[in-house]
Design goal:
Layout (H helix, E strand, L loop, with lengths): L10 H15 L5 H17 L5 H31 L4 E8 L4 E7 L3 H25 L6 H5 L10 H9 L8
Helix pairs in contact: 1-3, 2-3, 3-4, 4-6
Length: 172
């Protein structure tokens, strides 16, 4: 996806397109919860036993909007961060079923690299805080708030952020 000369132009539309495509590419994650929900509904219709439908619905909700949704928001945060970098002309996507890499074409300053590394987890944490405040009874916020852990140096975002961060001053 080319960013053009003005990185802010069309960033919302490009990010929404990217997020929807990412969600659809990984929709296979919903296969087991959808099957469980279908069986629960079938049991309800066939045997007038609707007791498993709320549980199956909750599992489906958390898989779709918790697990997959937080992943999409996290990656969209990185995408927006790269899209706002003035020296990045294009962002290519390399994807496997369990991994996604955003590869910028162009130059990233140290400050921009730090911003992009932090943008993914931070965007998920902000959405999680909003979900926790607005809809605490759903419990979805924790999926998003958990993305703060990706800032640890043992994960890609934390490692990238640590490499891009300026060195700490040491006392003389």
């Amino acid at each position: 996806m080319a960013c053009g000369h003005d990185p802010r132009r069309g960033i919302l539309v490009r990010t929404l397109r990217f997020g929807v495509a990412l969600f659809l590419r990984h929709i296979w994650v919903l296969t087991a919860p959808a099957a469980f929900l279908a069986v629960a509904v079938w049991l309800g219709v066939a045997y007038h036993s609707w007791s498993t439908v709320p549980l199956a619905s909750l599992i489906m909700l958390h898989t779709a909007f918790g697990l997959l949704g937080s992943y999409v928001v996290h990656e969209c945060g990185h995408f927006v961060g790269l899209g706002l970098c003035t020296h990045v002309s294009m962002v290519s996507v390399t994807s496997t079923p369990f991994r996604l890499s955003l590869n910028p074409a162009g130059q990233l300053t140290t400050r921009a690299a730090l911003g992009v590394a932090v943008a993914g987890p931070l965007s998920a944490v902000l959405v999680g805080a909003g979900l926790w405040v607005l809809f605490p009874e759903l419990g979805l916020g924790w999926w998003y708030l958990g993305h703060a852990a990706f800032l640890a140096p043992c994960f890609g975002d934390g490692r990238g952020g640590a490499q891009a961060a300026p060195p700490l001053a040491t006392p003389a």
